[in-house]
Amino acid sequence: MPTRRRIAVLGSTGSIGTSTLDVIAHCSDRLELVGLSAHSNLELLAEQVARYRPRLVVLTDPETQGLASSLPPGPCKVLVGDKGVREMVSDPEVDTVVVAIVGAAGLLGTLAAVEAGKTVAVANKETLVMAGPLVMGRANECGATIVPIDSEHSAIFQLLQCGRRQDVERLVLTGSGGPFRGKKAADLENVTVEEALRHPTWRMGRKITIDSATLMNKALEIIEARWLFGMSAEQIGVVIHPESIVHSFVEFQDGSVLAQLSPPDMRLPIQYALLYPERVPGPSRRLDWAALRVLHFEPPDPETFPAIQLGYETARRGGTCGAVLNAANEAAVQRFLAGTLRFLDITRVCRAVLESHAFSAQPSLEELLALDRWARQEVENWPRG
Ligand code: MG
After folding, report:
1. Residue 59's closest CA among 43, 20, 112, 127?
2. What one-character-per-residue DSSP string does 246-279 give?
3. Cα(246)–Cα(107) distance, rounded to whole angstroms?
4. Segments of the chain assigned E as strands
């Protein structure tokens, strides 16, 4: 029996977290769950603790500390807050940390795992969007390995195993186009939350589903790819592919284009990240070649979805832009979900906040966190739409 990799999952009760536990259960001869963290869904956390018996559990919200007694009795140690996260991810008996927390909250956990020299499987794209150069630089210094879970970046990561880096000409990210593909801006004036949450191919959390409707998700992925793979903004393309079967392309200098295909099921990129570079049978769905008839590709519509342009501008300028765009977008999505901001204003308010911020080319972590707070406040102050 091979040595099992010991896994800690930050954000175990969300969509990526539960899929990660599913993969670990299916590959239990190779993977062992040793730590979990959750923020508010303590009921599901208690179920997970009872089922997987992890050695470490972190309640990231200090307010929930009193509820630790509601967890099933057993040998697990309960830790609390940011300090608890740091202790878990740097535990010598953890090999791989999965960062499955949504939004900017994933940054501190990722940095702690990176500084402990772990393999860090990052599902949280906001971390690299906010602080890509900082995180990649620290990973380099600390001997940490970052493996992406985002399906497009996993596809590119897999495809890059097929050729030399200096021979890569371009990366092409695919995107489903979301629920409003083919619409014009005028059609989207009065979009409701329910309509925006109706994603055609992927089942995901609410924040990323809204990002998929505005195409801000693709904008964030351009920035993520920029830092993760060290490519310039000009070397990253986007193509709309409504079936979500091809997860991305890599184009080489000789004109050869490689693609990675699989059904839209996050358990495959999660499994690849956890077992990299090994491939074994797992729980994810298989392509049915008898049913698969046609794959469509079309260019994105930048008039209707101006978020794409914001992604390119941010990837080009770097510095503080990613942290500001990310925070403005998170706050704007929250306001849209709460019914106090219109759909088209999500991208408008992001542009306005990005353009009015005090740019700095090589920000520290403290500066990035301060701008993150500032940008959220700016969005809060934006008039009700
Ligand atoms: Mg993605």
Report:
1. 43
2. EEEEEEETTS-EEEEE--S-THHHHHHHHHTT--
3. 29
4. 5-10, 31-38, 56-59, 77-80, 96-99, 119-122, 145-148, 168-175, 236-240, 246-252, 257-261
Taking the centre of ligand 1 as the mean of its atom positions, its distance from the CA of residue 70, in whole angstroms, is 35
**Amino acid identity, position 382:** W
d(CA 323, CA 104): 9
- State the distance from the centre of ligand 1 to the C-alpha of 308, rounded, in angstroms: 14
Ligand 1 centroid, distance to 174 Cα (angstroms): 9
C-alpha 343/C-alpha 339 separation (Å) is 9
The alpha carbon of 201 and the centre of ligand 1 are apart by a number of angstroms equal to 12
Distance 150 CA to ligand 1 centre (A): 5
Q: Which single residue is written with the structure tokens 């306005």?
A: 352
Q: How far is the CA of 76 from the centre of ligand 1 (A)?
A: 33
Residue 196 half-sphere exposure toward CB, CA atoms < 13 A: 29
The phi, psi pair for 65, rounded to 5°, reads -50, -40
Which residues make up the environment of ion ligand 1, defined by Cβ < 5 Å?
150-152
For residue 300, whether the previous peptide bond is cis, meaning omega lies within 30 degrees of 0, is no
Residue 46, judged by CB atoms within 10 A of its CB (0-12, 13-18, 19+), counts as middle
Integer CA distances (angstroms), 177 to 89, 173, 226, 289, in order: 36, 12, 21, 23
| Per-residue model confidence as pLDDT tens for the chain (385 residues) | 668 999 999 999 999 999 999 999 999 999 999 999 999 899 999 999 999 999 999 999 888 777 777 777 777 899 999 999 999 999 999 999 999 987 777 898 999 999 999 999 999 888 999 999 999 999 999 999 999 999 999 999 999 999 999 999 999 999 999 999 999 999 999 999 999 998 777 777 889 899 999 999 999 999 999 999 999 999 999 999 999 999 999 999 999 999 999 999 999 999 999 999 999 999 999 999 998 889 999 999 999 999 999 999 999 999 999 999 999 999 999 999 999 999 999 999 999 999 999 999 999 999 999 999 999 999 999 998 7
Cβ atoms 130, 323 nearer than 8 A: yes
